[in-house]
Structure formats: C-alpha cells, structure tokens
Amino acid sequence: MAHKDDPVTVVVAWFAENKRELPWRDPKVTAWGILVSEFMLQQTQVDRVTPKWLAWMELWPTPDALSRAPLGDVLRAWQGLGYPRRAMRLHATAQRIVSEFGGTVPSTQAELLSLPGVGHYTAAAIAAFAFHQPTVVLDTNIRRVIARAWSAQALPSAHVTKSEESFAAQLVPGRDGAQWSAAVMELGALICTARNPQCSQCPIQASCAWLASGQPDNAPVRRKQPTFAGSDRQARGVLLRTVSEAHLASESAIEAVWADALQREKAMTSLINDGLVIRVNQGYCLPDS
After folding, report:
1. Which residue range is the domain that position 272 belongs to?
2. Domain end: 81, 112, 131, which one?
3. Last residue of one domain, picked from the residues 108, 131, 154
4. Which own/partner contact pairs does 63-69 have at CB distance under 8 Å and 24+ positions apart?
5. Of 17, 38, 58, 251, which one is the catalytic site residue?
6. What is the mean pLDDT of residues 20-25?
7. Which pLDDT belongs to residue 174?
C-alpha cells in the first residue's frame, strides 16, 4: 500500500480537490465521447475544444451517427480546431468502429491502434480514461511533471524514450492508473506549466527533484518551431475555411484571401491531395458537399 506522503498518492488527492469540471470527465460520458475528446485535444487548448466537443456530441453522439455524416459536414464542424486531417481520421475511425467492431469502441490497446489516427498515446489514453486500464499515458504535461519531480530536468526530451516509458510505468498504480494519469496531466496543465510554473502551489513541492536542485535551466535543446504567421499551414487553414464557408468557392474568392500565388497554389494542391478539398469546374468545394 502506498504511503500517504507518496508523490503519486499526493497528486491523486490534489486532483480530487482541484480538477476542472470538463464535460468529457462526466462519469456518464461514453467511450465514444472520450475518444472524440482525445482526437480534439491533440495539440489544441482545452478552452477551444470544450464548445466544439459539446456541439459535436449533440450532432454525432455515436460512431454510427458520425459514420453516416457527409465528410463536408464533418470538416465544417471541425473548423477552429486546426489540423483538419484529424477530422478525416475521426470520420474514418467511426466507420471502422461500425464495420469492424459493431459500433462499439474497442477496449484493448491493440484494437484501438488499428483505428485511423490512433497512435500509442491516444490508444493508451482511451484505454485509461474510457476503460480504466492501468496504461502508461504520456502527454506533454505528464512528461514534464515526471521529468521535473523525479529527474530534476526542466523539460523532457522531444520524443519519448524507452527508459522514460519504463520509469513512467512504475508510477502507474494498478487500481488507480486512469486517475493517476488524469491527475498528473492536470497538475502539468495548471501548476507545473512549461513557463512560469507555480511551484509554491504544487502539492509535491517537498519531494520535487527539480525544485530541490534550484530549478536549473537544463532542458534539452529543441529545434525552434517555425512561425505560424505566413506559413504554409496558415495558408491551408485560410483556404480551407474559405471553401467551407462558401460551400463553393470561386478562383477569385480563393485569390482574394491569400495574395501569394505560389504559396496559394501549393496550399490548395496539398488540400486537394489530402482529400480535404475537391476542384470542380466552378471552383472548389468540400467532399460530399
């Protein structure tokens, strides 16, 4: 039995008193609702996801409902969350769940990994939060807390290592694996943030190796992220939003929203190649529109 001062026990107790009331945390939410939240939360802030998730679950409360929806409607509903290929993969996942799993979200990690757009993190998170399995969930927040509290490292490395995964597995309590994952994730999101962590408010400050070491600036060197403004990714987002809002966007409408002709053509070609936009005689439209 874990001691009451054990950091894992302390974090779980802190979570019980301080967790945010997020809609997908409601005990009545289905495994499908949790799967949808995991797709939406990838690289997207909780505040942006919450209203989208609520609207999405009203429209498509089951895999079967989403599987029958036109892809164009799915892409329009996704607007504002970024990375629209995730919407395509979620749509394809719903169809796979219906065709191969009888409309029920599978519970094993192996089965979850067979779904489009479900990688190791997402499979582990769904298994933990939907089916209460003691899987090793390692998102950015969890990795940062573990790196600081146990390894005295300001930030984790860019990619998960085998040793990191092995150590994290030792922290997962068998009966409360899902609760621990949710708790340490919340601690990283609210207290142990990447910038300006609130160490004085941290429930495990007394045992934190990084704090005891004087909060050294010893984070591994990472490649600098490219600027979003003016990027190909921004061009793709602007053009896709224009097509989505117009239902049928003319060449002149596309030219009006992005001035750089070469970048505009490159972005539009990539959207077409990804199956997000279809070129028609009159201009451009979304699939199934």
Report:
1. 232-285
2. 131
3. 131
4. 63/32, 63/93, 63/94, 63/97, 63/98, 63/103, 63/104, 63/105, 64/94, 64/98, 64/103, 66/90, 66/91, 66/94, 67/91, 67/94, 67/95, 67/97, 67/98
5. 38
6. 96
7. 73
